[in-house]
Amino acid sequence: MTIDSLSLGHVRSLNHAPTRGTWAPAIFCAGWLLACGAEPSAPVAEPNEHLPGGETTNTLLLGSQAFTMPASNITAKQESVFHAGNSFFNQAWVGAPASTAGRDGLGPLFNARSCAACHFKDGRGSPPLDAEDSFVGLLLRLSVPGKEAHGAPRPHQAYGGQLQPFSLSGVPAEGRPSVSYKKITGEYADGTPYELLQPVYVISDLAYGDLPDDIRISPRVAPAVIGLGLLEAISEQRLSDLEDPQDENNDGISGRLSRVPDAQTGELTIGRFGWKNEQPSVRQQSAGAFLGDMGLTTSLFASQDCTDSQPECQKATTGGTPEVSDKQLDAVELYG
Question: What is the pLDDT of residue 38?
Fold first, then answer.
């Protein structure tokens, strides 16, 4: 089918190098002082300008490893859990049963074998560049017209809410996604030409029946996973204060808070994570990714994501109940 389309550990922030101060006034003053025969003064950075994440900012490492370090004010105990979470985040899971205790239970259907496969070095994933490129780092959400409870998209009856192109032996993978790009050309008002690329997604080898004409496909590139704890640390009251659905302050910006179910309490709370704020916490976002992306159950989401059209998926051997222990989820939550 073709469719055009808070815990201290996880308060890791961008490891920016110190940024420059305000240059324009300094240059103006330097010119005025030179005219008077005085020595020019060097620009001075604003207080804590080199700490964009406050006391959590890690300024010791830049380059390709910049996103992988814990918060600078983490405790020794938390740092130990952080590194355990890093191990679970990076190492590949395998199908059950296996001799790798604590690392089996992958699938039966999945998008990747590890978190890091999509969030390489905790950074953002990359979309495939052509029809032959791998879809690791980008997935396709599926939905049909209508809404579930609390406004959530309605999943497809046979394929669920996410296309899973990989599977364990004996379980048919849902389908094979690919992408190509169409060139769109035009010019701006001043005559300057531009060229855009429009992705065209194709899902072939569908194992559980054809998709309907009104299927909705939403491509999602894996986001960066740094600084999430800083977002979770913002109080609900502060977020409520910023809510302005009618733009009553006339600043040209309007928006309302997303309210989503908390899997632990069953109550509606503010959504903060995911491309559409569909998860309320780093813990639930991590548990949702374990289930949807790797087919791993947790205490938050204890049932496999198999539909009634997928009997082989339903009968597959599990890696325990749950497959990701609370201790492992704790570590990944703090790491994230």
Answer: 52
| Cβ pair 87, 100 in contact under 8 A | no
Give the 3-state secondary structure of residue 27: helix
> Can you give the pLDDT at residue 33?
34
- Averaged pLDDT score across all residues of the chain: 86
Give me the half-sphere count of Cα atoms (radius 13 Å) on the Cβ side of residue 20. 7
Residues in the chain: 336
Contact criterion met (CB below 8 Å) for 278 and 259: no
Better-scored residue on pLDDT, 109 or 60: 109
Give the pLDDT score at 308: 97
Residues 325, 330, 335: CA angle, nearest 5 degrees? 130
| Residue keyed to tokens 């908390």 | 262
Reference 296, options 316, 279, 310, 276; nearest CA is: 316
Rounded CA gap, 282 and 228, in Å? 7
Amino acid at 73: N
Contacts of 290 (CB under 8 A, 6+ apart): 296, 297, 298, 301, 324, 329
- Joined together, the tokens standing for residue 225 give 């996973």
Task: Give the amino acid at 311.
Answer: P
> What is the distance, to the nearest Å, from the Cα of residue 93 to the centroid of all Cα atoms in its chain?
19
Pairing of strands 166-167, 153-154: unpaired
- Taking the C-alpha atoms of residue 65 and residue 62, their distance in angstroms, rounded to an integer, is 6
- DSSP-derived pairing of the beta strands 268-270 and 153-154: unpaired
Cα distance between residue 325 and residue 297, in whole Å: 9
E strands, 164-271, in order: 166-167, 176-187, 193-204, 216-221, 259-261, 268-270
